[in-house]
Specification:
Elements (H helix, E strand, L loop, with lengths): L2 H6 L3 H8 L8 H9 L6 E2 L5 E2 L2 H17 L3 H12 L1 H11 L5 H8 L3 H9 L12 H14 L9 H22 L6 H30 L30
Helix pairs in contact: 7-9, 10-11
């Protein structure tokens, strides 16, 4: 092992010193157990000693925080570690979605006009940041435009806004204990948990819609699970335009 390697990596005793202030119950046997369970994979020196990189220490901190603050089983923690490993690609996707567009660009992309966009803004469906709109605003405008082809007016969608606000309030209540936890990863953990709950709420809403349609005697194929799939416009002449809100 060369000198630069030795300086960059910590021995297991040094890792204990690094983390004991945050996790008083950490021990050599616990670190070895986590390695045996496949949650960490420290390097080995030529003589066989474990050598922990800064990334290994950070991963160990993540595991211990999840155990202490969220009481998560190792299986769930391992799944979250796999999600963290895929985070760079997810971050790039989020960055792409964060691209802002002008009013004209949104109108052209969503296939609506100025009056329709104004109605969506009046009813709180589309919001802007300064003079620009985010990708979410574009998605909402495109979906609203497609619904307009079936005769759904902007004012009819107030119930959707209200339901969304209630869902967000529920999620905020559920993650508030996590946000009160001290630690650098509390907000990240709360955000991840919030999205897990939101996914379950979407699944519940989809199942309830399926059941309600069946009860109303309206058979058909199952609703699409991917709510971001390309929006299909209704046939010409079907429904009404989104006017008169």
């Amino acid at each position: 092992m060369n000198a630069s390697f030795a300086r960059a990596y910590l021995g297991i005793g040094e890792v204990l010193v690094e983390l004991r202030a945050e996790f008083r119950d950490i021990s050599v046997s616990k670190i070895r157990f986590l390695e045996a369970e496949g949650l960490i994979s420290p390097a080995r020196s030529p003589s066989g000693y474990r050598r922990f990189s800064p990334a290994d220490v950070e991963q160990l901190r993540f595991i211990l925080t999840a155990q202490r603050d969220e009481y998560l089983p190792l299986r769930v923690i391992k799944e979250r570690l796999e999600q963290r490993a895929a985070a760079p690609e997810q971050a790039q996707a989020q960055a792409d979605r964060a691209e802002m567009v002008s009013r004209r660009e949104l109108i052209d992309a969503a296939g609506i006009d100025d009056d329709q966009l104004a109605e969506l803004e009046v009813h709180g469906l589309v919001k802007r940041a300064g003079r620009l709109y985010g990708q979410d605003a574009l998605d909402i405008a495109a979906a609203a435009a497609a619904l307009a082809g079936y005769g759904v007016q902007a004012r009819n969608l107030r119930a959707v806004t209200t339901a969304t606000d209630r869902d967000v309030s529920l999620i905020e209540q559920l993650v508030s204990p996590i946000l009160r936890q001290r630690g650098p990863q509390a907000r990240e953990s709360a955000g991840r948990t919030a999205r897990e709950i939101a996914t379950l709420l979407l699944r519940l809403h989809r199942a309830m819609l399926e059941a309600a349609l069946a009860e109303a005697g309206l058979p058909g194929p199952e609703l699409a699970e991917d709510h971001r799939e390309p929006i299909r416009r209704p046939e010409p002449g079907r429904g009404q335009a989104m006017k008169g809100a």
